[in-house]
Amino acid sequence: MQISSIVGKAVNIELTQPLKVTFGEIKSIESLIIKITTDTGLVGYGEACPFEPVTGESIETEQAALNAMAKTIVGEDPFCIERLHSLMDSQTVGHTALKAGIDIALYDLLGKATGLPVYKLLGGNDNQVHTDITISIGEPRKMANEAVDYVSRGFSALKVKAGIDQESDEEAISEILNAVGDKAMVKVDANQGWNAKQTIRILNKFQNTQLQIVEQPLPYWQHEENKVIRNAITQDLMLDESVHAPSDAYTVISNGEADIVNIKLMKSAGIYGAEGINKVAEAAGVRCMIGCMAETRLGICAAVHFAAAHQNVAFCDLDSFLMFKEPDWLTGGFTNEGGLLTLSDKPGLGLDITI
Ligand SMILES: [Mg+2]
Q1: Is the domain of 201 the same as that of 295?
Q2: What local confidence, expressed as pLDDT, does residue 22 receive?
Q3: Residue 85 is part of a domain; what is its CATH number?
Q4: N or C: which end of the chain has fewer CB within 10 A?
Q5: Is 205 annotated as catalytic?
Q6: pLDDT tens digit string along 298-345?
């Protein structure tokens, strides 16, 4: 089988309500849907969701890089995924979200050609995962009300965004913990917005509570202080922006900086890189979470397949699709009931896509 064409289509998806994080306020998202067609007529779909603060890509830079990369990829065998990553990497450094979109389409094709869902190709540990749900930064009382609402809708893990104003962060965490009691596990994601002293003080204040994980408190380049934090708190430290590739996972884990690593397909250049990060982490006794940028159901579905396939991917933060007015050209792949996501057993990603 040979790749006969690869195209990217930009789509705009509206959020049901705006999301506030340290990077700003998000009202709608733009993403690039990748379509790979083969000489047999088989088609694979992927998603390259750009997020400039983390991977430096925009729809425009993705499209320009895709135009250049298409010349290298067309004519290649889509099943030779390592070879294709090597070709992409030797042509251009970075561009991990674009590479993820291409990678996801290749796994979709591989599954469709073999008649297997992607999670079975990757290890097939299970066909279900539990995702947390994100509580956007807002007025603490409102955040606590949202938390209660999510718990009543079947979510047992909450991810609380923080990092803009510490006083307000502390108040929000406190209100949320009081409101949900023992009904949900709570993570706090400071998105690089705290320093080590602030992190230690805040986490120690909430010792022995349902606040069990702190995610990326420090700027991504600050490595040594992660160890200081780990030694001073009882909760687990998870790194997100500090880890893009398997080599980053190796660095932070061998330095003793992380209890958990947050993999995102858009950072790891897709499933192939995510596999590498998870293996490095698992070998060191470090668990993984899989998170997301603002992918549609397409990118999320690929992440669910990856997470379900592996025991060491112990946590999922795959909730972006729940915040969108989902388009009718993209359906299926998995069902969701509260935080429980169950994959379809259809070949490939199992999605129905009509663009
Ligand atoms: Mg994060």
Answers
A1: yes
A2: 64
A3: 3.30.390.10
A4: C
A5: no
A6: 999 999 999 999 999 999 999 999 999 999 999 999 999 999 999 999
